[in-house]
Structures are given as C-alpha cells and as structure tokens.
Amino acid sequence: MAVPSRKQPPGRIKIMQALRLLMEEQGFDAITTAEIARVAGVTEGLIYKYFKDKRDLLYQVLEEMFEGVILRIRARMDLEKDIFGRLHAFIDETVAVYATQRVFARIILIEVRSLPDFFTSRAYGCVRVYSRMLQGVLEEGMASGDFRQDLDVRFLRDILLGAIEHTCLWGVLFHRELDVAGVAGQLITVVREGIGPST
Amino acid sequence: MAVPSRKQPPGRIKIMQALRLLMEEQGFDAITTAEIARVAGVTEGLIYKYFKDKRDLLYQVLEEMFEGVILRIRARMDLEKDIFGRLHAFIDETVAVYATQRVFARIILIEVRSLPDFFTSRAYGCVRVYSRMLQGVLEEGMASGDFRQDLDVRFLRDILLGAIEHTCLWGVLFHRELDVAGVAGQLITVVREGIGPST
Amino acid sequence: MAVPSRKQPPGRIKIMQALRLLMEEQGFDAITTAEIARVAGVTEGLIYKYFKDKRDLLYQVLEEMFEGVILRIRARMDLEKDIFGRLHAFIDETVAVYATQRVFARIILIEVRSLPDFFTSRAYGCVRVYSRMLQGVLEEGMASGDFRQDLDVRFLRDILLGAIEHTCLWGVLFHRELDVAGVAGQLITVVREGIGPST
Amino acid sequence: MAVPSRKQPPGRIKIMQALRLLMEEQGFDAITTAEIARVAGVTEGLIYKYFKDKRDLLYQVLEEMFEGVILRIRARMDLEKDIFGRLHAFIDETVAVYATQRVFARIILIEVRSLPDFFTSRAYGCVRVYSRMLQGVLEEGMASGDFRQDLDVRFLRDILLGAIEHTCLWGVLFHRELDVAGVAGQLITVVREGIGPST
DNA sequence: GATGAATGAGGCTTCATTCAT
DNA sequence: TATGAATGAAGCCTCATTCAT
After folding, report:
1. Which of A38, D12, D155, D159 suits a disulfide with C163, CB 3.0-4.6 Å?
2. Which residues of B touch A166 (CB under 8 A)?
3. pLDDT above 60 for B198
4. What is Dmax (Cα atoms) for chain B?
5. A189–chain B Cβ distance below 8 A for any pair
6. pLDDT tens digits for D102-127?
C-alpha cells in the first residue's frame, strides 16, 4: 500500500507540500492556486498537469495523509489483545493524530464537509475504511458479549466518532493544545461506564 | 415566541426568507447574492442595506433560528423534574431540531465552521448559550451526585455535543430521514450506562 | 450680500455642516451621502430636497465659504492705501484663509479640479470674482507705473495665484501647520524684487 | 532612453497604452476597467495580473512618463553653463512638457491630488526627484551669490513650481493651446527681476 | 516536465438617487 | 418638512483554469 512515492515528479510533490504548508495557517477556500504555485516554486499551470482541479489536489493530499493515519491506527490496534484495549487504541491514536496533524484534522473536520463531491472521491474511501475499523471493533465486542447488544452498531460508531471529533474540534479551530491522554481517557471512561455515579 | 418582528422592513424579511429557502437545496457558497435577490423579489443592493455582507446575512438568519431553538429546548427542559429527564430533554429536542430544521442543521453543522469570522459574530453567542445549557445540566448532576464527578465537565459536554451532531450529520448531508427517538434513546442509554454489557 | 441665512430650513443647514465636518478628514469622493445624512441627523432623501445632487451640495458649501472669504479679503484690502499694501493684503489674507479654513482649501485646491461641471457652477463665479480682484490690483499697478508693464496681466495673475496655492498645498494635503506670515512675506519679496541678488 | 522594456509582456504594454489613450479624453474616474480592457484588447482580469488595482495602473503609467520627463529636463539643463540658463531650462522644459504631454499634465496636476495613497507610491518618488532638481539649482544659485539668500529655498521652490503649474493648468483643463515660450519667458522675468518697475 | 501569458465568468459590493407616504 | 424603503446600474476585482510553446 501507499506506494513509497517512487518516481513521483518533483513538481507534484512540491505542490502537495505547498498546500499542506499553507493549510497550517489558512482555510482551503482562502488559499489560491497562485499562492500554492508561488510557495511550491512552480507555475499555476503545472498544478493542472497533476491534479484535475483545486479540490482534487486537496483530496489527494488528504488521501496521502489518511493512508498514513490508517496504518498508524491499525499498527497500534494490532498490539492489543483484548477488545477494550483495541477500542482504547483506536480512540487514543485518533485523538493523537488530530492533536499533532493539524492540517489533516482541519481538512477532515472542517473543509471537506461543504464540498459535495468529496463523497465520491477516493479520499472518501479512506473515511469508510477508517470508520469500518471502529465498527469492526464494536461488532466484535458485541459478538463476544463484551459490549451490550441492544444498540445499533452504526449509531454507536457515530456516537463515538462524534465524541472524538467534537472534543478535538475546538483545539483545531483555535490552534489550542490538546491533552491527548486526558481526552482519550475520559472518553473511554464515559463509553465503558456511562456517566452514572461510579459504582 | 418568535417575536412578531415588529417594524422589520419587508425587504429585510424577504431576503432572510430567501436565503433560508435556497439553503434547503444548496450550500451557502453555491448561493449567489443575485439568486437571493431574485428569490426575495428585491434588488441585490438592498441586501447591503440590511446586512454588512453576505456572511452577515447568514449569521443573522442563523441567529434568528437559534433563538427559537434555544427557547424550544429551554421550554422542554423546564417541564422535567429530575436531572436525567432534563438531560434527555436536551438531547431529544436537539436531535428533533436537527431532524426537522435542515437549514439550521446545515448552517450549524457544516457551513459555519469554515468561516473564521463566525466566532466573533453575534450568532456565535447563541452557540455559547446553547452549549452552556447542557453544561449547566451536567454541573447540576455532578453537584447532586447523580453523575460521576471524576470527569471534566467541559470534556463531557463536548463528548455529548459531538455524539449528537455526528449521529445527525449524515442525515443532514444526504437528506436522509432521522429516527429522532432512536438516536436520542440510544445516546441516552450509552451516556447513562456505557457500552459495557448491560448489568 | 450673503444673506444672513434667514429662513434657511434647519435640515439644509445641518446637511451643509455635515459635509464641512466630514471634509475635515476625508476627500469628497470618499464621503457617501449615507454618511452625510447620518452626521447631519437627517435621512438621505432630504439631501435631494435641497440639492440637485451630491456635487451641487459641494458647490453650495464652497460658495457659502467663498463669499465669506471674498468679503474678508476685500475688507482687508480696503484698509490699504498704496498698491503694494493692497497686493500684500490680498496675498496675506489668502494664505491666512488656506491656513485656517482647511475644508475650503481642500475643496478649492484639490477636489474641484477633477469635477468637470464645476466650471459651470455658481461657485465658479466666486473663483472669477476672487481672481478678478487680484487682476484689478495688478492692472492698477501697471496703469500707475508702480508695476512693470511688459507682462501679460493674466499670466502675472496666474503666476501669483499658483505661487500662493502651491506653497499652501502641502500643508493642506498633509495637515501641516502653515507659517502664514513667512509664506506671504517671502512671496511678496520675490514678487517685488525677484530672486536676483538683493541690491 | 526609455529602456526598451525588455521582456515586458505584451498584455501589460497594451493595458498601459490603453489608459494613456483614454486619458486624452476623460478623467481617470470616468474610465472603467472594462473600457481599458476593451481598448487594450485584453480581458479585464489581465489588468489585475500586472497591476494591484486600477490606481496602481495609473501610478505605473505616470511613473513611466515621469522618468522620460526627468531625463528630458536633465538633458536640457546639462547643456546650460550659467545658473540662470539652467533655471530657465528647467522652467521652459517643464512648460513644454505640460503643453505637449496632456495626459501627463492631467495626471500630475489634477488626478493624483485626490488619491491619498499616491504619496506612498513609487510614482511619487519621481515627483521628489523632479522637485529636488529645481531645489538643487536654487541652492546652487544661492551658494554662488547669484540668487538672493534671504529666502527659504523650499518656499522658493514651491513658489516657482506653483507658478508654473497654475499658468499651465487652465490650458490643461480646457484643452487650450499653450504659448510655451511666452509663459516661460514671463515667468523667468518675474522671477529674476520681480514686478517692480523695470529699472 | 514546465512555463507563463491570457482568459472569462461572474461574484460581491457600493452608492447616488427616487418616490410614496 | 421629512422619512426610509427600495432601486439599479455599474464598478472593481478574484481566481480557477487553459493552452501554445
């Protein structure tokens, strides 16, 4: 997977890096192709050699990052034996990614939602893979009796994803630091035991 | 409710209605001022008599809707005696709003996030009020011993808000129906008891 | 002359004052009718009750001020017996006006030049009267033999007017103080004796 | 002279020429970007590839012309041996420029004054250079004892510049012919000897 | 693989002005 | 005398995109 970028033309690489760089500071809409080209040190025209349009560039950047993220999470989960460990690994690693890879977080949490054609892009495939990983854990836990079985697994999945995203969102929006262990820990606690008084 | 908007110039009202109407079908960016004016039956210039710019119009539309939403939720919560009832009311009513007021949901869940100046707008004040309502319930529950006290109340609040939003998001994005009672019910269950095997 | 503004409707007065006030700080083009109305405390519509259009307002403001200026200069000149005294009075008083009445100076030195219809306005009549006053002095001086006679009186007039205006211009443009006596004195010296080595 | 503008993109050249052409007949404000583009035979968008905005275009046109003017004046002055010759050359050449280069005259005498950001533009640098040339002559004359020394050199400079400009202004405003030798000659006479009766 | 000049569509916004009340 | 809602024309400018070299 994730071909080691062998043979990638330098122009293409520079363009993708330029967008990533610019998105550290600005939203996608605020970034112009002229700016991307300037930062990349190429001409605007070259962008269209490698990318169908400006959004395609965004999607490809996202895809590349997302592949790395998925590998990371999978690797981390594979180390865990029990089901709660794997769930914790998924959550913790996701939060860690949002905390450290701000551009990735920006794109996935903010930019992409208002772009209708995202959901037919290859990058969206990554979202499905990612989402399916969590769903897999949940199904497994239900099957094994470790998790309660009276819930719709997709609802449950969305609840978890939403909880993760929202706790990270403000950090991303306002460039605030994120307490990874704290967020992940509290989330796991709520999910395991609920908010009723600890018994 | 919804103050009879005394003295509001008709043009202003028509413009706001036009945007709401158009946003049933398209994203904010895809809507042009020309289109708004045409649907409202006024000239483009009039928009700028009442609104600083196109985004200001969006924020004012959102604010107006949000005020109604807040009133609705508050009214509903005031009917409940116990703390879990109030929590349930908040969640259930929020989901109901997302399910029925698609434009409101669109704006708050999707459009607004990529607009940096939203967070300095008056409409954002509504978000804070709304968010504070939930936080109030949580604090109350912690103080009374009904909720566990080993969690950061703001984390908890964000977990809940995220869970609500995400479960509604896909319905909003793809114009799917939303099973209000189902979503709210499952969410409350998770929150109360966690996903551990039902005892 | 210059009717003591008897019976002038208050709205009209307020509008003219508003423009004068605003022109202390901004150029005419940068000032909008909306701003004028706001400062005057009237509605935009009222402006068009009293003035044909925005430029007409400018011209009437200028005319009113110019009438005062002409009276001042004339009064001052009438005190002088000899021809050089009158010339000095004209120059000195003009510089004094530019130094103290910045709005007047702004309009006459800057704004009005790019407005083609100014030269058919009543305010332009004031310019002619003013200009004629200087020309009168010069003609008188030539006739009496006090001034050299080998020059075209209109060229001479323009040379003097230009010298006055330009020495004041930068003060007006950049809100700098103006050394009235200095400017007028040096000007008179040059005009009387030239720049050849003092004999 | 007038560097062969090597490598200047043709579009850029055509745009600048178009503005010069249009300003023969109309004021800057009356000229629209659409008109400029039409006359240049390019699209409006291209204007903004080469010029920050419409005013920037004006300033660059002015700068280009002003550079030529300065070269002309300097060349002419360099031919003169004595100080009065150089002063005369400066005045005469300036008047000649105003008489023949109407667009240049228009811009410098009329348009530019009401544009606040002109004074921070590169074109304004030319004004300073030009103005400094005259001041240099005056300082030289004072140092050598050819000119009287009891005057502030900058006042004197402004008096001369104003006299030149004003005598040319009406010609420029009303498209009248200008008697170059006459204007320059009379001006020099006044300046040398004053208006006192010829001795 | 890369350039860079040029396009073109249309977006947002401004503002003087009018008119019914 | 004054209001204020509404107009309408057009202006400036942006920016993704193309194409010949």
Report:
1. D159
2. 158-159, 161-163, 165-166
3. no
4. 64
5. yes
6. 999 999 999 999 998 999 999 999 99
Helix (H), strand (E) at residue D31? none
Dihedral sign for Cα D157, D161, D164, D167, please: negative
B146 residue type, one letter: D
Is the confidence at residue C6, as pLDDT, over 60? no
Residue D46 belongs to domain spanning: 7-51
Give domain status of residue A100, yes or no. Answer: yes
**CB proximity list for D134: less than 8 A, separation 6 or greater:** D90, D157, D160, D161
Residue B81 belongs to some domain of the structure? yes
D173 in C contact zone (CB under 8 Å): yes
User: In chain D, which residue's Cα lies nearest the Cα of C152?
Assistant: D186
CA distance D33 to D43: 9
Q: D45 and D71: one domain?
A: no
Number of separate domains in chain C: 2
User: CA-to-CA distance for A159 and B167, rounded, in angstroms?
Assistant: 6
Listed as ranges, the nucleotides of chain F within 7 A of a protein C-beta are 1-20
Report how far residue C4's alpha carbon sits from residue C1's, in angstroms, rounded to the nearest whole number: 8
Residues 6+ apart with CB under 8 A from D7: none
Q: Determine whether D11 is exposed, middle or buried from the number of CB atoms within 10 Å of its CB (0-12, 13-18, 19+).
A: middle
Query: What distance in Å separates residue C193's CA from the closest CA in chain D?
Result: 4
Q: Are residues C57 and C47 in the same domain?
A: no
Give the pair of three-digit tokens for residue A196: 């009723």
Q: Residue D5 has which token pair?
A: 């503008």
Note whether D136 and D89 are within 8 A (CB). Answer: no
The amino acid sitting at C137 is V
* C151: nearest CB among D110, D161, D189: D189
Per residue of chain D (199 residues), give pLDDT as tens.
444 445 789 999 999 999 999 999 999 999 999 999 999 999 999 999 999 999 999 999 999 999 999 999 999 999 999 999 999 999 999 999 999 999 999 999 999 999 989 999 999 999 999 999 999 999 999 999 999 888 899 999 999 999 999 999 988 888 889 999 999 999 998 888 877 675 5
Does A9 score more than 80 pLDDT?
yes
Find and list the nucleotides of strand E having atoms within 7 Å of a protein beta carbon.
1-20
CB-CB neighbors (< 8 A) of D198 in chain C: 148, 150
Q: Is residue D119 part of a domain?
A: yes
Q: Which chains touch D (3 or more CB pairs under 8 A)?
A: C
Cβ <8 Å between D156 and C189: no
CB nearest to A192's CB, from B27, B152, B194: B194
A73 with A139, same domain: the answer is yes
Terminal-residue alpha carbon distance, chain C: 46
Rounded to the nearest angstrom, the minimum Cα separation between C52 and chain D is 20
Q: What is the CATH number of the domain that holds D16?
A: 1.10.10.60
Q: Counting Cβ atoms within 10 Å, is residue D82 exposed (0-12), middle (13-18) or buried (19+)?
A: exposed
Detail the protein residues whose CB sits closer than 7 A to any atom belonging to strand F: A 31-34, 44-45, 47-48, 53-55; B 9-12, 41-46, 49; C 9-12, 42-46, 49; D 31-34, 44-45, 47-49, 53-54
Q: What is the DSSP string of A36-67?
A: HHHHHTS-HHHHHHH-SSHHHHHHHHHHHHHH
Residue D30 DSSP one-character state = T
What lies within 8 Å, CB to CB, of C162 at 6+ separation is D162, D163, D164, D165, D166, D167, D169
Is residue D96 within 8 Å of D180, Cβ to Cβ? yes
pLDDT at A161 exceeding the cut of 50? yes
User: Cβ contacts (< 8 Å) between D160 and chain C: which residues?
Assistant: 163
- pTM for the whole structure: 0.91
Q: Is the residue at A199 inside a domain? A: no
Q: C33 CA to E15 C1', in Å?
A: 8
